[in-house]
Write a structure and sequence with these properties.
With 453 residues, the protein is of the alpha+beta class. The chain contains 15 helices and 16 strands. The strands form 4 sheets. The protein has a 7-stranded antiparallel β-sheet with strand order 11-10-9-8-7-6-16. The chain has a 5-stranded mixed β-sheet with strand order 1-5-2-15-12. Helix 3 packs antiparallel against helix 5.
Length: 453
């Protein structure tokens, strides 16, 4: 049961680690999500020890500036403390959504599969926060201190930090205009941060050998979390590709690759014919036992080349449960998100934290919104994030029975191109995404800024 502070606003407990006792807790094998729901919320000035025990470590300060926020939100009536509630219209549901009448405060540590500087979907609010005091001075100093370090950190630490800094750089690069009286000052500060980020990202570049030697955290997590054998021959899972463009790739600015897997309900005699039958077909999931989306991190080598890594950032699973007659009974959903701290202190865990369908997550603002704590705006452009269950978030995009699958839907007319079966060990889609990234202006600017002194 979560604990809440008294007063006009409620503060939900931190969603991730109980920092002071994490090593002991992990050794006892207690689930992170259960422990976090019991923790008292820390003040937003407290820096979580992601990369070192010392909260004042430069990398911990960087992480704090990028990720740790107190989010004012409304809670769905499905969740504890979601009452009293009011009903509001939401386009992703066939009925109105019941949410709490009062906004609540929720401390987000940020050590999960989210981008920094949130909210960032159709808003510069998240970016503006790090360009405003006190975060701006704190962030700039933390970057400067990290650049002045004399000793290189381990490859896994560098890979995780590079990924987060890279995302921050892209968001700052894209947000080049700020309105209002303070717009010029925010723009000037942006110009100060971009080269610092680029120089540190370059310094964190890994060799090809270091990237190859990074842990396969999906394989590690499979042991304890019983993840499906997506990458194993003979598992029944197929990695597939129809259209090269994927919204998840675009949403991550091509720093990560979204890989799609399907598991046929029965072993097809002709795999190609079966895959082609999925194209633009109604009731597609009647042919499938399960589908999976795996988000894979890309990294920048020390030679400036973007390459796939073995680091899995996020996993989304849907299983279709049927009766003896083959009719759908229910769709089971679960998700696994990367915790940097867990991966660093307990690599054998894979660093992936499981979320069941009742886990609290933020509702997307639109079907192409993969951001975090997005604003649910009304016609006047006003609104707050809404916290719902994982199942409700899935319904918002994939319909009430959670069977919608956009990977095989299109508005075009036949003849359709064939569906390709990929070898999951070849990283075909990840190499495609890496190539796209290196062609983009944000990446070219990053490389040029990294050369400046």
């Amino acid at each position: 049961m979560s604990r809440y502070s008294s007063g006009d606003s409620l503060r939900v407990s931190p969603p991730w680690l109980v920092w002071g006792a994490v090593a002991l807790i992990l050794s006892l094998g207690i689930a992170l999500t259960q422990l976090n729901s019991q923790a008292n919320p820390a003040p937003t000035t407290e820096r979580p020890p992601i990369y070192a025990h010392d909260p004042n470590d430069a990398w911990n300060r960087i992480f704090f500036c990028l990720f740790t926020r107190t989010v004012k939100t409304r809670l769905s009536a499905e969740l504890d403390a979601g009452a009293p509630s009011i009903r509001i219209p939401y386009s992703g549901f066939p009925h109105e959504l019941a949410v709490s009448t009062r906004p609540l405060e929720r401390l987000e540590i940020g050590d999960r599969a989210i981008e920094p500087l949130y909210p960032s979907f159709i808003t510069s609010l998240g970016v503006s926060q790090v360009l405003s005091e006190p975060l701006y001075t704190q962030f700039k100093q933390a970057l400067t201190d990290a650049l002045e370090e004399k000793t290189a950190r381990p490859p896994l630490d560098r890979a995780l930090m590079q990924s987060d800094l890279w995302a921050a750089h892209d968001l700052l690069f894209q947000n080049s205009y700020f309105a209002g009286a303070e717009g010029q000052q925010l723009t000037a500060r942006r110009e100060q941060l971009l080269p610092l980020l680029a120089r540190l990202i370059k310094r964190l570049g890994l060799t090809q050998e270091e990237i190859t030697a990074l842990p396969d955290n999906y394989a590690s997590a499979s042991v304890g979390a019983h993840l499906p054998g997506l990458f194993e021959p003979g598992s029944g899972w197929l990695e597939v590709q129809w259209h090269l463009h994927r919204m998840h790739d675009h949403a991550a600015d091509y720093r990560r690759a979204a890989r799609i897997f399907v598991k046929p309900a029965s072993l097809p005699t002709d795999t190609q014919e079966f895959l082609n039958s999925l194209r633009n077909a109604p009731g597609i999931t009647s042919k499938l036992d399960a589908v999976a989306l795996v988000i894979q991190d890309l990294l920048i080598q020390n030679d400036g080349k973007v390459v796939p890594s073995r680091l899995t950032y996020d996993i989304q699973l849907r299983r279709f449960i049927r009766n003896e007659q083959g009719a759908l009974i229910r769709t089971e959903v679960e998700e696994y998100e990367l915790s940097r701290r867990l991966l660093l202190i307990k690599p054998a865990s894979g660093g992936l934290v499981g979320l069941d369908e009742k886990a609290p997550v933020y509702l997307p603002e639109a079907g192409n919104d993969y951001g975090f704590a997005s604003l649910e705006r009304n016609r006047r452009g006003e609104g707050l994030p809404i916290l719902v269950t994982l199942r409700a978030r899935c319904i918002a995009c994939h319909a009430q029975d959670i069977t919608g699958m956009f990977s095989f839907s299109t508005n075009s007319q036949p003849p359709f191109p064939p569906v390709a079966q990929l070898n999951p060990l070849n990283n075909d889609h990840a190499f495609y995404v890496a190539k796209r990234k290196m062609e983009r202006d944000d990446f070219k600017a990053l490389i040029e800024e990294g050369k400046a002194r």
